[in-house]
Design goal:
Blueprint (H helix, E strand, L loop, with lengths): L4 H19 L5 E2 L27 H4 L6 E7 L7 E5 L5 E6 L3 H13 L8 E3 L2 E4 L5 E3 L2 E5 L4 E3 L2 E2 L10 H12 L10 E10 L2 E7 L21 H6 L3 E5 L2 E4 L15 H11 L4 H9 L5 H19 L3
Parallel strand pairs: 1-10, 2-6
Antiparallel strand pairs: 2-3, 3-4, 4-8, 5-8, 6-7, 9-11, 11-12, 13-14
Length: 314
């Protein structure tokens, strides 16, 4: 006969299993090995000259809104619906729909602008799917190309990687607080291996799946909000500074330990680079992601307030 305690044990085990599936990487894990810093970040020659309308891939790679996108398969897993599609030129695309599409393009382009490795991403307000179970017109979507010569080798770990202790990695953590990304899980990190050298390196350490941003984090639940300008405006940034260590207003629940021992210099390093973006670049990155002028302006003002707060830290 089963005792009354057994169901509780089974329930706890089941919940633990679900939690493990939710937090464990879904791909092979890349263990640390020596790597040049340029595989994660390289100082741009001139941040103010970077094209935030088209980003890493440039205008030539951008998907055409009137192109024929042929169904390949439906996206499996994850929060956002989407498809793998192929366009008239033979380029295969990962098409992510829903609330994460806009912030992912903005955040990825900003990271690329200040020197962090990112794959090309684009945004289409509407497009047409040919084939599949539900063909026809589709709404706002993030498009990321499957580039020949870019091989996904697995997930790299926030806590175990070749760049621990470097200013750019700590600055990257600061950036996640600036954009309020609450989904900084290892499985969202990717190591790309390139067939040919790019900027002197053949591997890119990338933080991908950045759509859980531009909202509000919370320490009470695993999830915060996304793409919500009111929540983004309300979210605080720096709570206090003690002995040169910055304490952020709300770190969310995931990877809270990453925010320990972030120094004033780390925050200033990141904010000084974001401060080099021009007004046009700020407008371009939001406009190309489909934001209306009023909403873009509110996001930009909050971004710039955070950047100035970081630059003023003593």
């Amino acid at each position: 006969m089963m005792t009354t305690g057994c169901p509780r044990v089974l329930l706890a085990a089941a919940l633990a299993a679900v939690a493990c599936r939710a937090t464990a990487p879904e791909k092979p894990v890349i263990l640390p090995s020596p790597a040049p810093l340029a595989e994660l970040w390289a100082e741009p020659r001139d941040i103010a000259s970077r094209d935030l309308r088209h980003g890493e891939g440039g205008a030539a790679l951008a998907p055409a809104p009137d192109a024929r996108f042929t169904f390949v398969e439906e996206k499996q897993g994850g929060f956002s619906p989407g498809y793998t599609v192929k366009d008239d030129k033979g380029v295969t695309w990962s098409a992510k729909m829903g609330i994460e599409a806009q912030p992912e393009v903005v955040v990825s382009r900003l990271l690329w602008a200040i020197g962090f490795r990112q794959p090309p991403v684009y945004f289409l307000e509407s497009w047409t799917l040919a084939g599949g179970a539900e063909p026809g017109r589709k709404g706002p979507t993030r498009f990321r190309p499957h580039l020949p010569g870019w091989k996904d080798r697995g997930s790299w770990l926030w806590r175990k990687n070749p760049f621990l202790g470097t200013r750019p990695l700590r600055g990257l953590v600061v950036f996640m607080r600036i954009v309020n990304n609450w989904d900084i899980l290892d499985r969202n990190n990717v190591l790309y291996e390139l067939d040919s050298s790019r900027d002197g390196v053949r591997r890119h350490y990338v933080v991908k799946d950045l759509g859980s941003s531009l909202g509000r984090t919370t320490a009470l639940w695993h999830q915060g909000t996304k793409n919500d300008v009111e929540d983004f405006e309300k979210q605080g940034f720096i709570d206090s500074v003690q002995d040169g260590i910055v304490h952020f207003e709300d770190k969310g629940r995931r990877h809270r330990d990453l925010y320990r021992n972030i120094s004033v210099e780390d925050v200033r390093w990141m904010c000084e680079r974001l401060a080099k973006l021009t007004p046009k670049q700020w407008r371009d990155v939001f406009q190309t992601a489909g934001y209306d002028e009023a909403t873009a302006g509110r996001f930009i003002r909050r971004f710039q307030a955070k950047v100035e707060a970081g630059r003023r830290l003593l």
